[in-house]
Amino acid sequence: MDRANLENSIKGLTNLNGNGISGLKSQITQIQSDATALVNSAKGDFPNETSAISSSVDALKNSVTALTSSPSAAQVATVVKDAANVVSSVKSFSNATSSQCS
Question: 14: which DSSP letter?
Answer without folding.
Answer: G
